[in-house]
Automatic annotation (TrEMBL):
Superkingdom as given in the UniProt entry: Eukaryota
Pfam (any one): UPF0261_C
Occurrences of domain UPF0261 (ranges): 2-184, 200-420
Gene source species: Hyaloscypha hepaticicola
Protein name per its UniProtKB record: UPF0261 domain-containing protein
Classification via CDD domains: Tm-1-like
Length: 428
């Protein structure tokens, strides 16, 4: 039976968490082995109840940062930050010493921000993470981030018992019980495959709409010709972060970073930035890593009216009613090239495992000859910046006259990655 961490601010939500606790155990009555639930109190004030596994005093005293912290006079925001620290340390230790198959919580804005921060920091991708929240129907980007946190809207406030809330919490318990049970079984199956040496090579690939033909061809080629499992990440900012997190967690063995457009958004203030550490994870781990320049011809914004005033006179293209693209200039392409080569020079652990592929025929569907973002001069600056910056580093640079979505170019990149991985084709 699974082990579930139930985390909440019990000074204000005790009744609701006791109900969740009881519902979880009701669902496991007929199970052959007992369910394990660890209830952690991360509230503002101490609360007593027999169901609590880790009490507020235990959490604060054992897992706090040390020193005196005044809960009575500190602002609410500081208290939440303090409890995030305590709870993160606690959950991290539990994960290191005990199998855990799911994390469940419920709360308003404070509880949601607290527990989601813990989930994002220490819970591995793939582990079920569920929050019943009063803010689940709003903008959940800051809550979920690059993780797989599941949000369920509470409909009513989590403040006292009523038929609607009991219904929602009952469904929540059922969802977590099902997810955690499935996760436990899946882990067992994966461990058995790993012990038998049957695990496939795990390859991460970044994709955008304008690089989809390239990525589709790579995926088709790798899965047909090699013992490979492909993970495609949509380069929307969170997608790049998710891929890099999986790399850090050891869940990817190689990367074909076709679409590095998130760098443009980071440097120029677009809305699909993956932050200043983009590219670092694979370089630091030293895994086989092919980097290309897919969709570096564009910066992403929302509605055309929302494009910053300083860019209103630029070459803009309405990709769809909610997405406006801006063509990168020569100077901006130089900035992108500088960013890429500096990351490679600073962080590449194994330079022999890094290659940069530059398709001179066009870096996206709309940057090829005759299309709206065609700009040979800007693309040339990007290429020359990367080549000059990486000269003498030992990093292989492949400059090719084909466009990025040319099927033969895609296959060539895929084959080069397999060479770096030391993989041979399947006998079909």
């Amino acid at each position: 039976m699974p082990h579930i961490l139930l985390i909440g601010t019990l000074d204000t939500k005790l009744e609701e968490f006791v109900y969740l606790h009881s519902q979880l155990f009701k669902l496991s009555i007929d199970a052959p082995t007992p369910l394990q639930v660890t209830l952690i109190d991360c509230g503002r004030l101490p609360t007593q109840h027999e169901a609590i596994t880790i009490t507020w005093p235990q959490l604060v005293q054992k897992y706090g940062p040390g020193g005196d912290f005044n809960f009575g006079t500190s602002p609410r925001g500081d208290i939440i930050k303090h409890m995030i620290h305590c709870t993160t340390n606690c959950v991290k230790q539990i994960l290191q010493t005990t199998p855990v198959h799911g994390i469940l919580s419920a709360g308003g804005t404070g509880g949601t921000s607290l527990v989601s921060a813990v989930m994002r920091e220490v819970a591995p991708l793939g582990m079920p993470k569920l929050i019943v929240s009063t803010v689940a129907s709003g903008d959940t980007g800051p809550v979920v981030g690059e993780t797989d946190i599941t949000m369920m809207y509470s409909v009513v406030d989590i403040a006292g018992s009523n038929a609607m809330l009991r219904n929602v919490l009952g469904n929540t318990a059922g969802a977590m019980f099902g997810m955690s049970t499935a996760y436990e079984k899946r882990l067992l199956s994966e461990n058995q495959l790993e012990n038998k040496g049957q695990q496939k090579l795990r390859v991460g690939i970044t994709m955008f709409g304008v690089t989809t033909p390239c990525v589709d061809k790579i995926r088709e080629h790798l899965t047909k010709k090699y013992q490979v499992e492909v993970f495609v990440f949509h380069a929307t900012g969170h997608g790049g972060k998710a891929m890099e997190r999986m790399i850090v967690e050891g869940k990817l063995d190689a990367v074909l970073d076709v679409t590095t457009t998130e760098i443009c958004d980071h440097l120029m203030g677009g809305n699909m930035s993956a932050g200043p550490t983009r590219l670092e994870a694979a370089l630091k781990r030293g895994i086989p890593n092919i980097i290309s320049v897919g969709a570096t011809d564009m910066v992403n914004f929302g509605l055309k009216s929302m494009v910053p005033e300083k860019y209103q006179g630029r070459k803009l293209f309405e990709h769809n009613p909610t997405v406006t693209l801006m063509r990168t200039t020569e100077e901006e392409c130089r900035m992108v090239g500088d960013f890429m080569m500096e990351k490679i020079k600073e962080h590449a652990k194994v330079t022999e495992n890094v290659e940069v592929w530059i398709p001179r025929g066009g870096v996206s569907l709309i940057a090829v000859p005759g299309q709206v973002f065609e700009d040979d001069d800007a693309d040339w600056v990007l290429s020359e910046t990367i080549k000059a910056g990486l000269k003498g580093t030992g990093v292989r640079i492949v400059e090719d006259e084909r466009e990025i979505n040319d099927a033969s170019f895609a296959v060539a990149m895929a084959e080069s990655l397999m060479r770096l991985c030391g993989k041979e084709k399947l006998e079909i």
